[in-house]
Amino acid sequence: MMEKEEKKVTGAYEKAAEEGIDPRCIPQTLNSLPPVGDEIVTPHYSKEENDVWGYLYNRQTGLLEGRVCDEYIKGVELMGFSGKEIPSLKKLSSVLYEATGWRVGRVPGLIQAQNFFNLLRDRIFPSTDYVRERHEIDYTPAPDCFHDIFGHMPLLTNPNFANFYQKFGEAALVAKGEQQIFLERFHWFTVEFGLITNSAGRRIYGAGIVSSFKEVDHALGSEVQVIDFDPYKITSQEYEVWHLQPILFSIDSFEQLEEGFNYWAKKEGILN
Hints:
Blueprint: H1 12-18, H2 47-64, H3 70-79, H4 89-100, E1 103-106, H5 113-121, E2 124-127, H6 145-152, H7 159-174, H8 178-192, E3 195-198, E4 201-204, H9 207-210, H10 213-219, E5 225-228, H11 231-234, E6 247-251, H12 254-267
Parallel strand pairs: 1-2, 3-6, 5-6
Antiparallel strand pairs: 3-4
Helix pairs in contact: 5-7, 7-12
């Protein structure tokens, strides 16, 4: 009996690349482990680069007041961010390791999925160390260090989120075919564009919202349809990278995110 041919699936970023989108959005392949923790050499940032960071930091922190979740705020305080200069990845790695056992690895930009998932499995967060130019202050097509540091790292100080993200990496290394697209969607609607609703009300936690001027207002506005967290609904929901998101999902807690993902991934046979 002939084996059924596996259906070719294409991710959102791959589709964008095929449509001639900015080459910075085409993932690079790492042939070896990137510099991690104390191995990272901090660049000498120019005044202009630090000024861009400071502008973005001050604008976003003002915009996020009363809109971002407490876990994120606690993470920012622990990381010691300021608007004065771009933080050192080496120092941030030390803070994360003490908090949840995660470290930071310095990467050149977007990296191939296999590289990315291998790092997550090993509790290494891949981060760029360059900041966008001023003419891209409101939007950059590919992640820069403001997105990676300000958007992602604070929540990695939260034990439940940190554990979830490691398990995500483990599951992604096992996933095949359509399961890979399911995981891409799960990542998009939680890590990048997740909301949380609890006694404090509805708040933001996804890095794609936290680090975006336009998305902060939009995500909590009346134009967005918010759906309660459900891994099966999330993995069935398509999205487009280049538009404000019309549909978002909200968790009740980071415990729910961790436990819900683990349950779904085990049912899918991609997590032990």
